[in-house]
Amino acid sequence: MKIAVCQINTTVGDFNGNVEKILASLKKAKADGCALALFPELTLTGYPPRDLLDRASFLEASKKAVETVAQGAQGIVAVVGTLLENKGSGNALFNSAVAVKDGQVLYTVHKTLLPNYDVFDEARYFAPAAEPAKPFEYEGLKIGITICEDIWNMPGFETHKLYQRDPLTELAKHKPDVVLNLSASPFHAAKLSTRKKLLKAATETVNAPVVYCNLVGGNDELIFDGNSMVTDVMGNTAQLGKSFEEDYLIYDTSAPSKMSTTGPLSDIETVHQAIVLGTRDYVRKCGFEKVLIGLSGGIDSALVAAIAVEALGSANVMGVTMPSPFSSKGSIEDSRQLAKTLQIEFKEIPISPLFEEALKDLTPFFEGKPSDATEENIQARLRGITLMALSNKLNRLVLSTGNKSEIAVGYCTLYGDMCGGLAVISDIPKVMVYELAKHINQHKEIIPEATITKPPSAELRPNQKDRDSLPPYETLDAILRLYVEENQSPDKIVKAGFDVGVVKDIVKKINQNEYKRRQMAPGLKVTTKAFGMGRRIPIAQKFKEK
C-alpha cells in the first residue's frame, strides 16, 4: 500500500481553507497511486483552537468539514484530525482522527493522552479515549492510528510518567503492520533529534514501521516545523520531510526503501527559519500584508527587519528611525544603511520636538525631583505613539524588537519599545541575537557590521550603555536559561559557578517584571520555555526562592 504523508500548513478556524488543502493533497495522492493519505492532528480545525472549542458552532463547522472531506475522498482513504462529540461523562469533546472514503467514515479513534503542560491545555477541553484503540483493517493491513502525545509516553522522554496508560503498548498487543501518527508538535531548538529517538523507540514498541505526519506553520506563539518522517521496522529514519515548509512524502509498505532526505540544519539555521515562518504566518493569518519596525540602529531592530524582509518581502516592510536628543549620528546612519541594503521604505521622524514639549508640560509636576528613568521612558513611549499612529493610519502591523534577555529583566519600556502586534525575537536571548545576525551575514553584509560590533545601548541618556545596567549578556543569558528554562533555584545556579549577588539581582528583576511581560505582544516560541502561554507566573505574589 502506498501512503501519502501530507504535511500541510493549516489555519485555526479556517475550515474552508483547510479543507481545500486536504482535497488538493488527496487529488495528488490519488494520482500517485496512493491508497491512503495521512494528515496532521486537528487538520480541519487548525491547532491549537483553544477556547474556540467552547463554541457549539465550531463543532458544527468541524462536522460539516468532515462530510466535505469524506465526499472528496473518492477512491482513497483520508485520515484527518477533527473534533468529535463526547456524549458520555467528562469534557464534551474528543480530539479525534477519522478515516473517510467515498462519503463514509470507515474508522474513528480518539486521543488517549491529553497534554496539560507548558503550552498545552488539552485536558481543559477534551475527554480521553476510554478504551484502547484497535487497528483499522484496510487492504489486508492492520493499521494502527495514534494522535501526537499518544506515542510520547515512553521511558527516557519528557512526558514519561505523566500518564498511567501507554497507547503504544496497548496497540502493540494487536500486532499492527504499520502505525500512523497525526501530530501537531511545536518547534523548539534541537527538537528534531528528540523526535527521531522517539520514533525509533515507538517502532521498537509496536514492532512495525511508524508513519508520522507533523503540522507545519505558525499559529500565534507556536511554530510547527513539519519534519514529518517514516521509520522502518528497524527504527531507522527512512524518510524525512522538509523543515518549515509544506511537504509531501510517499511510503510504500510493500516496497519500503530508504529515500534521500534533506540534510540536517544547524541549530541556528532552524531558529532562523522558525522565526521567518512564524512572522510570515502570524502577519498573514491575522489579515495583514505590511509591517512597520522602529529602527534604532541597534542589532535587535536590525535583526527583526532582516527577518521581516525574508518573511514578507521588501515591499511590505517599512523602517522608521526616531532620533531623540541622545541618539548618535552613527545609529541614524546605521538604520539608513540597513534600510538601503534591505531595500525597504524608510522614514526619519525625530521625537525631539515632542520630547521637549512633554518636558515643558510635565516639569512643573516634577519640581524638586532629579532626572531618572522617567525621562528615558517618555522618549520610548513617544516612539511607541509614533509607531502606533503610523500603524493605524497605514494599516501596518508593528513588529516589536525586544529580545528575551532584556524582556526577562525588564530592561524595556511598557507602552514604549514593547508596543506592537508581534514580538518577533522575544524568545531569542541576546547572545543568540548576535549569532543570528552573523548567520544572516554569512554570504554578504546585510546587517551593518557597525551595528554588530558597537556596544549595545538604549540611547535614552548621555553615553548610556547596556553594560551600565546589566551584567555581560553571556552571564545574563546563562542564568536566564537555568532559572527560566530549567527551573533551577538561585542556590543551584550559584553552585554552578555564578556570583551570588548577580544571581539574586537577576532573579529579583525577572520576578519583578512579570507585569510587563503579561502586557507585551505575543512572541514566537523557539526555546523550551518562552515568556507567554507556556509560562504562568502570578504577578501579585511574595514567594522568595532560595
Explain the overall architecture.
With 546 residues, the protein is of the alpha/beta class. It has two domains: 2-263, Nitrilase/N-carbamoyl-D-aminoacid amidohydrolase, CATH 3.60.110.10; 271-466 and 510-518, HUPs (Rossmann fold, 3-Layer(aba) Sandwich). Helix content is 36%, strand content 17%. It has helices at residues 15-31, 56-72, 122-125, 167-172, 191-206, 267-285, 299-312, 329-342, 352-362, 373-394, 404-409, 430-440, 449-453, 473-485, 490-495, 500-512, 514-518, and strands spanning 2-7, 36-38, 77-85, 93-101, 104-110, 136-138, 141-147, 178-183, 210-214, 216-219, 222-225, 229-231, 237-240, 247-252, 291-294, 317-321, 345-348, 397-400, 422-423. The strands form four sheets. The protein has a six-stranded mixed β-sheet, covered by helices on one side. A hairpin with a 2-residue loop joins β10 and β11. α7 (299-312) crosses α12 (430-440). The N and C termini lie far apart (59 Å).
Distinctive features:
6-stranded mixed sheet; 546 residues; 19 strands; Rossmann fold; 2 domains; 17 helices; Nitrilase/N-carbamoyl-D-aminoacid amidohydrolase; elongated
